[in-house]
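ok new one. same drill as before - structure tokens go in, u give me an amino acid for every spot. 537 of them this time. try not to just spam alanines like last time pls lmao
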């Protein structure tokens, strides 16, 4: 077995030479499918036909993959890696079908852990509640009158906080926060806070220690490797977390590849100025994450016309235009990438126009993260200004239950329009935005190709005209994702000279039932020729 030939404990710098033969998707420019691959010292020597290569490497350990298939290492081009690990220590209320269910999960969590300080959680979604209404903090105040509670919505752009938490954060009914909303009804705080107001409250929560941050990161790595991911882009990290990541790489505890975006604030800019671009083998820090607007689910996405289900409301711009331009100017002068969260059609047009002042005719690979609702007349600007669209297919199949309520039919043609974005730019990077969505890459592939949820709904697929082909979906999780972070010359393909990052599967996504895609898990995950997950052990 492959597991016996390459020890799970082997160090990546030890010399290894393997010859694998079976079905291998290279994801090269011709999307070649070969049946042999030679690997040595963490890199791919050659791929091709077994009949021609089998005698070329007589000293290699030969491994028959039998009925298994090989894909290049899978990327998540936009996620929150650190937040995934941290959520494991918080109360996870995702999937709750009512506010009462949310409260029950919080009570069970507190009882099981004897939490004495802040109670922090995430995952509620009012669109799953029968009422469809935002919650309030009345029940939280009754249950936890002296203990601060902050429960963020699934998208992280809205939260409900009890009175104690609001008091500790200094938030009153008179508080005004630019780019944020603090809900007041009948002269009282309801506990609902949106976008930048959430960040204001989070400042009151005690900072995690180095040991806690390290534990969260290692937990996230465990989950991601088990899901088949070899590379992740964390879309927004603070200097504190970046320092811990760096130390864990030096200690050889972190092995997954991380492309980290720095949160675009004062501390983030100072970190970038002091450290410059970091471009290590597995750790890259060369981009800023800017928040253009909020989320569609919490009605914070910035729209050109008012929301169809909220009169005279168009969402919010979270970062002032002058600040966005400040980061763009600094990034252009210092070889940094700009990656901006833009969900609404107004936010997307605004960012495309700003980007265009810097990127036209240049290969800067600045990115629009989400590109969720784009005016069909604006899609061509991705090509005109050389802007990389970075999208999350599972957002489409999660939001399809209520997106039309927010946008009406007139704007849906430019929403979740992945094929249109791909045709405009020629490439599209795929991610999940986890833990907002499931972190498993097969769910990304499933949603991108079939445009259905886990129940196979809708039968014909949600806006199936924008469903990607299987080939496009795999490229979006490999080659194109690598391109989006300037790694296309060493990652994302199984070709000569590339890093030996690959995933071995018992199911071929291109030749199996779609339910097998949804329930898929990897058999082996390899980074730099080192097995990091082996279900065969």
């Amino acid at each position: 077995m492959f597991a016996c030939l390459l020890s799970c404990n082997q160090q990546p710098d030890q010399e290894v030479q393997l010859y694998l033969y079976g079905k291998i998707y290279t994801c090269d420019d011709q999307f070649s499918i070969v049946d042999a691959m030679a690997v040595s010292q963490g890199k791919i020597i050659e791929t091709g036909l077994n009949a021609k290569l089998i005698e070329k490497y007589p000293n290699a350990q030969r491994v028959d993959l039998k009925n298994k298939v090989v894909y290049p290492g899978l990327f998540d081009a936009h996620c929150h890696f650190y937040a995934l690990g941290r959520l494991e220590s918080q109360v996870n209320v995702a999937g709750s079908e009512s506010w009462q269910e949310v409260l029950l999960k919080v009570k069970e969590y507190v009882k099981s852990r004897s939490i004495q300080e802040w109670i922090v959680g995430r995952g509620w979604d009012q669109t799953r509640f029968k009422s469809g209404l935002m919650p309030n903090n009345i029940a939280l105040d009754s249950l936890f009158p002296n203990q601060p509670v902050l429960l963020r919505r699934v998208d992280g752009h809205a939260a409900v906080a009890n009175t104690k938490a609001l008091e500790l954060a200094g938030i009153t009914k008179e508080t005004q926060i630019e780019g944020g909303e603090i809900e007041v009804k009948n002269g009282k705080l309801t506990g609902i806070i949106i976008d930048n107001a959430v960040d204001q409250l989070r400042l009151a929560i005690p900072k995690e220690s180095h040991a806690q941050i390290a534990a969260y990161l290692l937990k996230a790595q465990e989950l991601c490797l088990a899901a088949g991911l070899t590379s992740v882009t964390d879309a927004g990290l603070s200097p504190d977390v970046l320092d811990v990541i760096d130390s864990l790489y030096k200690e050889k505890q972190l092995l997954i590849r991380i492309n980290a975006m720095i949160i675009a604030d004062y501390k983030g800019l100072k970190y970038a100025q002091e450290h410059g671009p970091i471009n290590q083998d597995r750790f890259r820090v060369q981009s800023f994450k800017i928040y253009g607007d909020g989320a569609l689910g919490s009605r914070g996405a910035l729209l050109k016309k008012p929301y169809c289900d909220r009169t005279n409301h168009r969402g919010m711009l979270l970062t002032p235009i002058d600040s966005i331009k400040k980061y763009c100017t600094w990034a252009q002068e210092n070889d940094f990438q700009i990656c901006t969260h833009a969900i609404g059609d107004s936010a997307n047009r605004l960012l495309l126009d700003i980007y265009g002042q810097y990127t036209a005719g240049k290969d800067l690979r600045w990115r629009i993260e989400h590109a969720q609702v784009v005016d069909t007349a604006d899609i061509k600007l991705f090509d005109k200004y050389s802007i990389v669209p970075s999208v999350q297919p599972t957002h489409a199949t999660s939001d399809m239950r209520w997106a039309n309520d927010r946008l009406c039919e007139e704007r849906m043609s430019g929403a979740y329009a992945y094929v249109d974005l791909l045709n405009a730019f020629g490439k599209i990077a795929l991610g999940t935005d986890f833990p907002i969505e499931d972190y498993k890459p097969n769910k990304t592939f499933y949603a991108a190709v079939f445009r259905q949820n886990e129940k196979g709904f809708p039968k014909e697929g949600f806006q199936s005209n924008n469903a990607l082909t299987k080939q496009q979906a795999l490229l979006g999780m490999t080659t194109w994702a690598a391109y989006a972070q300037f790694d296309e010359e060493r990652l994302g393909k199984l070709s000569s000279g590339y890093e030996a990052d690959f995933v071995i599967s018992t199911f071929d996504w291109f030749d199996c039932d779609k339910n097998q895609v949804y329930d898929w898990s990897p058999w082996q995950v390899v980074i730099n020729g080192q097995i990091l997950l082996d279900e065969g052990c």
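The chain has a mean pLDDT of 94. and btw Residues 422 and 428 are 5 Å apart (CA to CA).
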